[in-house]
Amino acid sequence: VDFDQGDHDHFMVKEIHEQPEAVRRCLRGRLDERFHTAHLGGLELDAREMRAIRRVKILGCGSAYYAGQLGAQLIEEVARIPADAEPASEFRYRNPVIDPETLYVAVSQSGETYDTLAAVQEIKRKGGRVIGLVNVVGSTIARECCGGIYLHAGPEVAVASTKALTNMSVGFALLGIHLGRIRDLSPANGQRLLDGLAALPAQIEEVFESRPKIADAAGWLATASSLFFVGRVRGFPVAREGAQKLKEVSYLHAEAYQTSELKHGPLALISPELPTVAIVPDDELLDRNLTALHEIGARSGPLMVITHQGVDVGELATSVIEVPRNEPELDPILLTIPLQLLAYEVSVQLGRDIDKPRNLAKSVTVE
Ligand code: G6P
């Protein structure tokens, strides 16, 4: 186990840079080119049982919950099974109805988060079926679940999760393809997504080339006392995770909003003092997102835009970061990477204790 920072100033940035390799490890042996599906050997459920699943419910805490939200959207889109995510910490206390036709998925880097474990036990006690998406092999949650998908991100030291989180998203993509291919996802679409996953490591490397531009953006964003992160549909879990990461390591206040909801309230706050980081993928919602950017610009709200190569945001944004295009369903995975670097660079500017932010623990193993 390598607990050495190597050439990096902090574990957080080291782990950010380990992501291409971490994703490769997560994909190894799982891309089934013959049947255009994902091979998931740890699932302990046969095709008939997988086919009988009518809903997917994902449970996790903190960033794992946001990854779960990204995963739920991906699974619903790819496999056409209704899916949602909920914080395990809420689920376990609300006496949830456990449905025998739902596949419950517990997602956790450490595999030791007490709230997530308690949710798993509640599901099992009521006769539900729960699998794990876990990084640490042999951890308590991994052992309590009926099989699952190991993330193989390698040991993560920084409190702010980066590579484990990316691998959670990759794990959900594999699960979505697997569930889809025993339903109506075509071989061609299955293969399209496998190719998209295989392209991720090199594309993540490409995102790292934007680090100087992200550091520039961090320079002006670090002077704000509060920021908005906005995205819609596929971009919304990205915005939530971006805001969370910034809060955790920089201690700046950040709030994530659906871009579509801006006009229903938060637009009142837009002013030169409140910067917005907008997630604007080149997808079917691009025009609507650009309209929202104009609304922010018209109120002199400073803007940083995370988008795809070739999208023209004109003069609206002070900083524009472009990431490579993947498949639309997988784009959120790449759009998250600049936000990790942004949280890191802002925190460097502010001189924060990046690997051990105040008041936080890497895993919360008590009630
Ligand atoms: C803690 C950490 C978070 C993490 C969450 C879930 O609250 O501070 O960064 O996302 O636990 O951890 P897990 O190990 O279950 O993914």
Automatic annotation (TrEMBL):
Q: Where in the cell is it found?
A: Cytoplasm
The residue ranges of the SIS domain are 46-185, 217-357
| Coiled-coil region(s) | none
Q: Name one GO molecular function term.
A: glutamine-fructose-6-phosphate transaminase (isomerizing) activity
Going by the record, the broad EC class of this enzyme is transferase
Q: Where is the active site?
A: 362
Q: What is its EC number?
A: 2.6.1.16
Q: Which GO biological process annotations does it have?
A: carbohydrate metabolic process; fructose 6-phosphate metabolic process; protein N-linked glycosylation; UDP-N-acetylglucosamine metabolic process
The UniProt catalytic activity note for this protein reads: D-fructose 6-phosphate + L-glutamine = D-glucosamine 6-phosphate + L-glutamate
Which positions make up the signal peptide?
none
Q: Which UniProt keywords apply?
A: Aminotransferase, Cytoplasm, Glutamine amidotransferase, Repeat, Transferase
Of the GO CC terms on this record, one is:
cytosol
Q: What does this protein do?
A: Catalyzes the first step in hexosamine metabolism, converting fructose-6P into glucosamine-6P using glutamine as a nitrogen source.
Q: How does it assemble?
A: Homodimer.
Name of the protein this chain belongs to: Glutamine--fructose-6-phosphate aminotransferase [isomerizing]
Source taxonomy: Bacteria, Bacillati, Actinomycetota, Actinomycetes, Propionibacteriales
Gene that codes for this? glmS
Entire-sequence positions represented here: 257 to 623 of 623
